[in-house]
Amino acid sequence: xxxxxxxxxxxxxxxxxxxxxxxxxxxxxxxxxxxxxxxxxxxxxxxxxxxxxxxxxxxxxxxxxxxxxxxxxxxxxxxxxxxxxxxxxxxxxxxxxxxxxxxxxxxxxxxxxxxxxxxxxxxxxxxxxxxxxxxxxxxxxxxxxxxxxxxxxxxxxxxxxxxxxxxxxxxxxxxxxxxxxxxxxxxxxxxxxxxxxxxxxxxxxxxxxxxxxxxxxxxxxxxxxxxxxxxxxxxxxxxxxxxxxxxxxxxxxxxxxxxxxxxxxxxxxxxxxxxxxxxxxxxxxxxxxxxxxxxxxxxxxxxxxxxxxxxxxxxxxxxxxxxxxxxxxxxxx
Length: 333
Description:
alpha+beta, five-stranded antiparallel beta sheet, seven-stranded antiparallel beta sheet, Arc Repressor Mutant, subunit A, 333 residues, 13 helices, Jelly Rolls
């Protein structure tokens, strides 16, 4: 396989890191993006056909990796990051320090590499993976927000990720959707707020799809808070609707967990907090369109000022709420 020739065919190809046949170059690139490790070709050749594409953001790193050879990696404990390896082609064979073993197969399974374990993974030549590198502060902070209490130790996920369950399929779908959006011009890559929310969704899917000590607590229905406790959250939304608000921030305003925030909004308003916020923002857009006296007013500028960056979706949501397109509102204004 010609690694350089394959680059344009692979996922995240607009975020290339390296395509190389040299084993040492491959090791250095994966070390730089993911973690220090030893790398050998088990067939005894000092070569691979590696392609690595990756993009890093505030919450985690997302990458596509293939070695195009029988590569074996030995990875010491990182202490500060989780790695989620979702196999989308071929197979890998993994084991870790505590004796656990796992086999991953295309779109059926993956593994979670814990920060406090040495891990070894052998790739078949046709193996390809989507790999998340998630700092402990991101994942454990997100879990703490969901639970409404501190998380101060490593989340000990099961080694193997079952992608055949409904939740496993949801995790794979979320990661693949994020991957596609990072490639799409005008997609989430250009919208930091939406990107943060999707990355948070991916972490939530991981926490519910892969068994861990918090699985039962996360699966239990969240208790809604008393209606009065939503008042400061709604007031904060209305006063800051032009800012990049997130469920995590809103939950902190209301002194509750993210799960309780969602349960409370569903009980009181029949919709999620972000859907409620969208209605507030749509109302602001409509008010501007109706009251503006600017002859050259641009709908795009108004929409983006209120957090609507996907304009076709904005127009659809506006029409669903008001029964007319934004352009029709301007003509009536």
